[in-house]
Amino acid sequence: MEYLTTTNLDSVNTLSTSEAAFVGGFVGTMTIAALVFAALVIIGQWKVFEKAGEKGWKSLIPIYGQYILFKIAGAKVWFWVLLGATVLASIMMSANNLPIDWNATQAEIEAELNLVNWSNYIPFILGAVISCLASLVVEIVLAIKLAKAFGKGVSYVLGLIFIPEIVLLVLGFGKAKYDKKVQK
Fold it and tell me: Is 57 contained in some domain?
């Protein structure tokens, strides 16, 4: 059994002042960029909600905001498909948890992994695959329906799939008109 060992602090590598300044500047810059990006996402989605006749604040509530976005796109059924697939996948994935011994050494973990019958984890793997595929399909359907709801075509669909934050800003602040007939 291994006991706590001491470390000679003179041998510990530390950052120089210039290295620490660089790391701090980089982290600070990335944090500010992330906050600006998050603000733009919130503003874009808020404007899309308002253009569709919904209150903008609804976009701030995580699950409810997604439901309203699906409603705006005329895809409420797909919201429930996604939610159901996520719940099903979560149940399947939690059916067989991997046994973890937090105090095991690397050699013990490797030996145990070689003895594991991986076929016992098929529900976990299937749950992960179901979750990923359902999310992908529903995201594509949502992009298609949302683009149609604003009278836009394939380029907006691709934009909503790959760079939704920017396209939501364009939809929210652009001249696109929302077709209220989409909400059924």
Answer: yes
12 lies in some domain: no
Q: What percent of the chain has pLDDT over 90?
A: 41
**Total structural domains within the chain:** 1
Domain that holds residue 140: 19-182
Report angle CA 150, 154, 160 to the nearest 5 degrees: 65
CA atoms of 40 and 173, how far apart (whole Å): 11
Residue ranges for the chain with pLDDT beneath 50:
none
**What pLDDT, on a 0 to 100 scale, did the predictor assign at position 162?**
93
